[in-house]
Specification:
Blueprint lengths: L4 E5 L3 H13 L3 E6 L2 H11 L3 E5 L7 H11 L4 E6 L4 H10 L3 E4 L4 H13 L7
Parallel strand pairs: 1-2, 1-3, 3-4, 4-5
Helix pairs in contact: 2-3
Length: about 130
């Protein structure tokens, strides 16, 4: 078991729950769940997790602006962005802002597990 901690942010409650359960099953302690970018920033400031799994498109505040603010606070925090948008413009923007990995919806659980294992080994993170 590792000392990895995470927060999970997605406006789809089902995805947030599923990702949280998956992370916990892989030994990652989920410190909080949120449903928009505002939640992400607040939970990040409160809990200082090692990693964040966050959707790109959400109401109130999107994941792009939350990513920008979180990386200003801590460039070392691993941020894995989740999106159904396959445009190269979004992917390029996320990479410029410092996203450590991009997961495309619909995602496969085995891809998320692979990313978690890479994080736990401190390896290079891949895009799925």
């Amino acid at each position: 078991m590792t000392n990895e901690t995470a927060i999970v942010i997605d406006d789809d409650y089902d995805i947030t729950g599923i990702l949280s359960e998956l992370l916990e099953s892989q030994g990652v302690k989920v410190l909080g769940m949120g449903y928009d970018g505002t939640d992400a920033i607040q939970l990040f400031k409160t809990h200082s997790p090692n990693m964040i799994f966050m959707d790109v498109h959400m109401p109130i505040q999107d994941g792009i602006s939350a990513l920008r603010e979180i990386k200003k606070i801590s460039s070392n925090t691993i941020v894995i962005m989740i999106t159904g948008d396959t445009s190269s413009l979004i992917e390029e923007q996320l990479q410029i802002l410092g996203a450590d990995s991009i997961i495309h919806k619909p995602f496969r659980m085995k891809n998320i597990i692979q990313i978690i294992k890479e994080i736990q080994k401190h390896s290079t993170i891949m895009t799925t």
